[in-house]
Design a protein that fits this description.
Rossmann fold; 36% helix; 8 strands; single chain; 309 residues; globular; alpha/beta
């Protein structure tokens, strides 16, 4: 049974509703991007990391893929990360605080990929960018574990890239998926269970994101779009993080079960009182920051079982 929504977040969401927040589907991509940008600018900066650099990977189909790279001292692995935002929103800058927390708690280099966004660059542009960067990172760091991670739509991209790299014979060591969107059809109960306008993401918002990412509905059954439909045997070990108050919760559970049925090692971590994309609040709400740190530390142990608690 789902726990009550975290009271601090409930108060925040209620206040934003009373201040005039409207569902994302009622606005434009530009207005949604501007709202995220404003939230980023008004949030506190993230923790210091020993080295943070903006780089360009000259490897993608578009020629160049920008990324922000975080390198803590004494790192012992690399995580290629895809931010969330429904394939249309978000950026490396908007996920900066989260990636700093991830790098420090996981003790890993984090490559935060600024992949191309829809609708200007629809499916599979963002996927191709992430795949190109991940393949290049694997080539650059052959002697250390390289994992792939993503949240929401970025989780969709990350797990598809993990499968594509499996098929290419250059697999990643593991994947870290935060509340991934893995099925285009709204077939799971949580889509309707969490359709209250209190939440920043509701079940009714999902078609808006899919329409921007893949305008042709007939293409959404492609396993590169809906990875729940893919052949999953041989996928890398997976740490899957779910939020209890999330329209994507049930498809995440289904994906964990599909992976296990395929013989993949899966560790599931649930936050029953948290909503979708609670990671975006990790710079301004300490319970969300603590959740991110706990997951990152768990992922470090996931990659390095010999790491002491």
């Amino acid at each position: 049974m789902t726990e009550e929504l975290d009271p601090g977040l409930r108060a925040r969401y209620q206040a934003s509703l009373e201040a005039g927040r409207r569902p994302v589907r009622e606005g434009t991509v530009e207005s949604a991007r501007a709202a995220i940008r404003q939230r980023t600018l008004s949030s506190p900066p993230g923790p210091e990391v020993d080295a943070v650099n903006d780089r360009v990977f000259r490897v993608g189909p578009a020629g160049e893929v920008p990324a922000r790279v975080y390198e803590p001292a004494g790192l012992d692995g690399t995580i290629v990360f895809a931010h969330g935002g429904g394939w249309a929103l978000g950026s490396a800058e908007d996920s900066d605080v989260f990636c700093r927390q991830l790098a420090l708690a996981a003790n890993a280099r984090v490559v935060n990929v600024d992949y191309r966004l829809a609708p200007e660059h629809p499916f599979p542009a963002g996927l191709e960018d992430l795949l190109a960067v991940a393949a290049e990172v694997l080539r650059r760091h052959p002697d250390e574990p390289v994992a792939i991670a993503g949240e929401s739509a970025g989780g969709n991209l990350a797990t598809v890239v993990a499968r594509r790299l499996r098929d290419a014979g250059t697999p990643v060591a593991a994947e870290l998926l935060f509340f991934p969107n893995v099925e285009a059809e709204p077939i799971f109960p949580s889509v309707t269970r969490f359709d209250d306008p209190l939440y920043p993401l509701t079940g009714s918002d999902l078609p808006w994101y899919w329409d921007n990412y893949i305008p042709d509905p007939s293409r959404r059954s492609d396993p590169d779009a809906s990875p729940l439909r893919a052949e999953l045997a041989g996928m890398p070990p997976t740490l899957l993080v779910l939020a209890g108050h999330d329209p994507l919760h049930d498809e995440g559970l289904a994906y964990a079960e599909r992976l296990r049925e395929a013989g993949v090692h899966v560790q599931l971590i649930e936050f029953p009182a948290f909503p979708h994309a609670f990671t975006a609040l990790s710079g301004s709400y300490e319970p969300a920051a603590e959740a991110v740190r706990s997951v990152a530390a768990a992922f470090r142990r996931f990659l390095h079982p010999e790491t002491p608690n």
